[in-house]
Write a structure and sequence with these properties.
Blueprint lengths: L1 H11 L1 H10 L4 H35 L4 H13 L5 H9 L7 H33 L8 H15 L1 H7 L7 H4 L1 H23 L3 H31 L4
Helix pairs in contact: 1-2, 2-10, 3-6, 3-7, 6-7, 6-11, 7-10, 8-10, 10-11
């Protein structure tokens, strides 16, 4: 219980909370173990909810009498007057079946920990590079320090990850999108306080490093989307 109280303290008093965690100098492997213990169950639940949404959407897609096709079919027939509904029905019948729930749940046991591991490594690499650009690194072994800082921050982030599950509830996601977005931003910024505490730099440098991470990642994503659009829209030759 004391461990959870410490995590909760980091949410509302991140500068003091993460400074206290950094003073305890947690080892990499114990810190990583706590992160997996806290985050993997939440990630698994998020995977199950996403799979349920995918199953519902795929079932609706395969149903030729469902709401999706009642909405889309008039536009298709307007664009292609020769289109027969029986052709659409025959095409839908050829679609493969959705994987069984037992298979999906079994795959989740692999997807959840691998997803958390990937998130940890991604955040560590980007935040470390951005902190380096801000002059916040001091030695050769600083990346190990970043790894611990990120695992501690992701442990604290379990509260935000749990709240984000509300966004996957049908209809509730639209209603809660704004507050959940604010919560997501806050837990993103919390990583900066952890970075600053473990690297011994001012909190603003850690926070700006996480914001720079978001900005550069957004630029890369926009660049990739633009490149794909260019390849699709510009005729070859």
């Amino acid at each position: 219980m004391g461990f959870l109280v410490r995590l909760w303290h980091c949410v509302f008093h991140p500068e003091r909370g993460f400074a206290r965690v950094a003073e305890e100098a947690p080892g990499l492997w114990p810190s990583l173990g706590r992160m997996f213990l806290l985050r993997v169950p939440v990630a698994y639940l998020a995977y199950v909810l996403l799979a349920a949404q995918a199953l519902h959407g795929y079932t609706e897609l395969k149903n030729p009498d469902g709401e999706i096709w009642r909405t889309v079919l008039p536009y298709l027939q307007q664009a292609s007057p020769d289109l027969e509904f029986q052709e659409v029905r025959a095409l839908l019948e050829q679609l493969p079946h959705f994987p069984a729930w037992g298979t999906l749940l079994a795959w989740g046991l692999l997807v959840a920990p691998v997803g958390i591991l990937g998130l940890w490594m991604h955040d560590a690499a980007w935040d470390h590079g951005c902190l380096w650009m801000l002059g916040g690194l001091k030695g050769r072994k600083e990346f190990r320090t970043t790894l611990v800082a990120e695992s501690e921050a992701l442990s604290v982030g379990v509260f935000g990850a749990a709240l984000s599950l509300l966004g996957q509830i049908p209809w509730a996601g639209w209603i809660l999108s704004l507050p959940l977005g604010i919560v997501g931003i806050w837990f993103w910024v919390l990583r900066g306080f952890s970075l600053a505490a473990f690297h011994g730099v001012p909190p603003w440098k850690g926070v700006v490093a996480t914001l720079l991470h978001a900005f550069l990642a957004g630029c890369c994503l926009l660049g990739l989307i633009g490149l794909i659009a260019l390849l699709l829209l510009v005729p070859v030759g």
